[in-house]
């Protein structure tokens, strides 16, 4: 009964829901994007979710990271995110990893997962995950949100290239974090969750080999082809 509304979708039946229940998805990062990603993937019936993050909740997170509230400031994001997921769907199995993603541990971190969803907020982790997904042939669902806009794509899926094909050189780290309107990460994270579900269930057209760019301030978006 929990997934009855899924089963009313044309072309979506119990076999597709079973694929979700048997799937394993790693969500890298437990911030704004994950606030939508983790909750919607758990609610949709993904059977196993991995959460990897090393940071703690801060007051400045609360405008967009709706997994959290003022009572959990200074607690580990990964542990608090896992608690929220357990409340939402006790049937979802969780793997919680309190670590920073690096070139040295990325492969071991994502090994055994069917799909990786990138909800990181630093380039070093994103490039490390991208390389590990390429090595293990795991689909990499990329999303980013900044100011009033965002980007979305899927790499390492059905012949699609890598994140490094899009951005060959890692940008220099900045000392000042970019501004972002609160709902933007939720907007992008929800779209990432849909791409993950499409990959697992074989529904629709996956955004592989393409980059979707959103400009919500001016109500514009575009899709660009990505070549290797």
Task: Give a summary of the structure in a few sentences.
It is built from eight helices and eight strands. By secondary structure, it is of the alpha/beta class. Strands 3-2-1-4-5-6-7-8 form an eight-stranded mixed sheet, with helices on both faces.
Please describe the topology of this protein.
Layout lengths: L3 H4 L6 H9 L1 E5 L3 H13 L3 E5 L24 H12 L4 E5 L8 H5 L4 E4 L4 H14 L3 E7 L2 E7 L7 H4 L16 H19 L8 E6 L4 E6 L3
Parallel strand pairs: 1-2, 1-4, 2-3, 4-5
Antiparallel strand pairs: 5-6, 6-7, 7-8
Structural class given helices, strands, pairing? alpha/beta
Could you tell me the strand content as a percent range? Answer: 15-25%
- Record field, number of beta strands: 8
What's the average pLDDT? 94
Superfamily (CATH H level) name = NAD(P)-binding Rossmann-like Domain
CATH fold-level name: Rossmann fold
Q: What is Rg?
A: 17 Å
Name the poorly predicted regions: none
What top-tier CATH class fits best? Alpha Beta
Order of helices and strands: HHEHEHEHEHEEHHEE
**From the coordinates shown, what is the CATH architecture?**
3-Layer(aba) Sandwich
Level of helix content?
25-40%
How many separate helices?
8
Count of the separate structural domains: 1
Describe this structure in words.
- The chain has about 230 residues and is an alpha/beta fold.
- The protein has one domain: Rossmann fold (3-Layer(aba) Sandwich), CATH 3.40.50.720.
- It is about 35% helix and about 20% strand.
- The chain has helices at about 5, 15-20, 30-45, 75-90, 105-110, 125-135, 165, 185-200, and strands at about 25-30, 50, 95, 115-120, 140-145, 150-155, 210-215, 220-225.
- An 8-stranded mixed β-sheet has the order 3-2-1-4-5-6-7-8, sandwiched between helices.
- Helix 3 packs parallel to helix 4 (about 75-90) and helix 3 (about 30-45) runs parallel beside helix 8 (about 185-200).
- The radius of gyration is 17 Å and the shape is globular.
- The N and C termini lie far apart (about 45 Å).
- The mean pLDDT is about 95.
